[in-house]
Amino acid sequence: MATARKKPASTEDTAAPQAKPGLRVLKKYPNRRLYDTQTSSYITLADVKRMVLDGVDFEVHDAKSHEDLTRSILLQIILEEETGGVPMFSTSSLAQIIRFYGHAMQGVMGGLLERQMQAFTDMQQRFTEQTPGMPFSPEAWTGLMGGYAEQSKSLMNQWQEQMKNAGALFPFGTKK
């Protein structure tokens, strides 16, 4: 019995991935333009940033290959923000992040940063809920930082305990 050989998919006949319900799909064309399939119009990175700020779930796909480019677009937005005003990351913190790429701890560090960001977001949301109508100011936020520091310390202790239990060694210094 002969089996038919499957023709390898080329970029021309690769089917577009099925969109998840409620997910907005953006296409990126070779001319670097972004196309919003929901509104049937071209959009800018500023529009994508607004979608992020508004909590819109979306994915960006290459129009031809259908490769997921979402992370790349989000990194472009971060780069524009970092170069356009008051940066969030210091040169030192960016260098430290780069040092984790290719390191055995890369996956652990990504998870740790994600949990820290979520803890920070949760705390900000609680502040907003507990103080309705109170203007958000650096002074008000400073009062919460003590709680955030405690939560961060707790997460770090949990992470270190997990590493100890896994038998992994974690270097606490940085290479010079």
Automatic annotation (TrEMBL):
Q: Where is this region: Disordered?
A: 1-20
NCBIfam families per the UniProt record, alphabetical: PHA_reg_PhaR
Question: Record's Pfam families?
Answer: PHB_acc, PHB_acc_N
| Boundaries of every PHA accumulation regulator DNA-binding N-terminal domain copy | 25-84
- InterPro entries xref list: PHA_DNA-bd_N (IPR012909), PHA_reg_PhaR (IPR010134), PHB_accumulat (IPR007897)
Q: Which domain of life is it from?
A: Bacteria
Protein name, please?
Polyhydroxyalkanoate synthesis repressor PhaR
Where the record annotates domain PHB accumulation regulatory, the positions are: 89-127
